Amino acid sequence: SDAYKSSLPGAWRDRVPDVRVTSVAIRNTEDPDRNLALGVSLRSEHFGSMADDRFLINLAAWSRGAGVALLAGVSRRQPVFLPFAGTEIHSLTLAIPREWRLDTVPDLIDFENAAGHYRSIWSFDGEKLVYQRTLVLNRAMVPVEDYAKLRSLLDTAEAGDATLVPLVKVALRPSERGR
């Protein structure tokens, strides 16, 4: 929908000021037994930052914040009530511009405990970098005795979501520029 498409950039504006939504596809809206699927294509000329000769990007920044706000404190006296229990699965693809190459692919993170499951998988096919993130929260109400497990799960997710991917500038021959 056009209204939904026009509202999306605000969700990322603080991290990527020049983001533009180029397409939106919403699937499975008519079938309550199937997971709602949202496909969004975005374009931005400026995201990431330079560090020496590397351009560092954080694909997780596009999905982070869609789920649970991180909790403060190391202990609780009352249960934690989360906005939901369930699963968030995000799959993000970055087409690497020809003038850049991927330096390293981040390692897999796979963490599970009684509170839930966090998984971060990266793959690269030579042209596109794919990031897949799964966050499962087993319960919307987390009892006091399981708070440390929830804290551990969310700390792992926060660390995984902070993963930076380095790109290195590649010198193109004049015949390759502008293609």
Topology:
Blueprint: H1 2-7, H2 9-12, E1 20-27, E2 37-43, E3 49-51, E4 54-57, E5 80-81, E6 86-95, E7 100-102, E8 109-113, E9 116-124, E10 128-137, E11 141-142, H3 147-161, E12 165-169
Antiparallel strand pairs: 1-2, 3-4, 4-12, 5-11, 6-10, 7-12, 8-9, 9-10
Report on this structure.
The chain has 3 helices and 12 strands. A hairpin with a 3-residue loop joins strand 9 and strand 10. It starts with a helix and ends in a 10-residue tail after the last strand.
Written as H for each helix and E for each strand, in order along the chain, the element string is HHEEEEEEEEEEEHE
Total strand segments: 12
Q: Helical amount among residues, as a percent range?
A: 10-25%
- Strand arrangement within the widest β-sheet reads 3-4-12-7
- Radius of gyration based on Cα positions: 19 Å
Question: Can you tag this structure with a few keywords?
Answer:
179 residues, mainly beta, 4-stranded antiparallel β-sheet, 3 helices, 14% helix, 38% strand
Short account of what is shown:
The chain has 3 helices and 12 strands; from the N terminus they run ααβββββββββββαβ. With 179 residues, it is mainly beta.
